[in-house]
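Protocol check, entry for the methods section draft. Step 1: assemble the input record (protein sequence plus ligand SMILES). Step 2: submit for complex structure prediction. Step 3: store the structure tokens unaltered in the notebook. Ligand used here: zinc ion. Step 1 record:
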Amino acid sequence: IRTFSAYGGAVDQRVYGASKAAEYGAVAVLVRSMTTRQDDVPHTGTSVYDEEIKQIPAISISTNDANMLSDLLLKEQVIVSIQNNAQPMGERTSHSVIGEIKGSEFPNEIILVGGHLDSWDVGAGAHDDGAGCVHSLQVVRTMLKLGYKPKRTIRCVMFQNEENGLAGGREYARISNEKGEYHLAALESDSGGFVPRGFSFEGHADVLKPFYKHVSQWLPLLESYGLQFSTGGSGADIGPLKSQKGLLIGLRPDSQRYFDYHHTDIDRIDAVNQRELELGAAAMTSLIYLIDKYGLQ
Ligand SMILES: [Zn+2]
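Step 3, stored output:
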């Protein structure tokens, strides 16, 4: 099951549902959690209000509770009382965290590996996106441990504020463009710490075809580890780098359990399997090594 497609197809109900319902006179909305599992855990996430329409409370409820409510509604009138203490607390400055190994031959060609440091306040954000941060750190750490000296600059970026509007990714790209930097490639891990199944590639129309053709010749080296290549989305935080015309890449781990934990109180470290996490880091390190060693043309 393509769980990310399912999420992408349904999440507008959470994002825009409150304003849509308010248009029809709703005083609040109960949102069925965006998950592929039947469980008792509410899954939170972004909701966006239409400025023109009255802003009403939006509360996510678990899939089991939503099913129960739906069944009851078929039989009788239901009265729900809501107690909500969530409120906007304003904005504060927070920072992305960046470290790098300078390239020995082509220091101006940056290869970025990254994830995002922030998470929703329920749970700990272990899969979303602690795993991506650890994956990215591990790429750099593995190179250091092996004594590998990259030709190109390998930069690890743990982006701030992915979840609430991508401020970290946008600001990173803005400063990078201002400095005239060039990201030859950027690889983001933001789909959990599960068994890696491959990578998906995107980029500016001018470069995607030749770059993708070039990386595809490495597929035989990675296929035996269960890794596949495809074109498609990469990562939200690296998206703003597209105009630099490098190759944007997303790690694609097995997605069947990702939305069991996504944006919940149970997205904690005990939900992450160490071996699966390590395999993701190994897959990323292998691809970054190939790009560093052979370039993209
Ligand atoms: Zn995320």
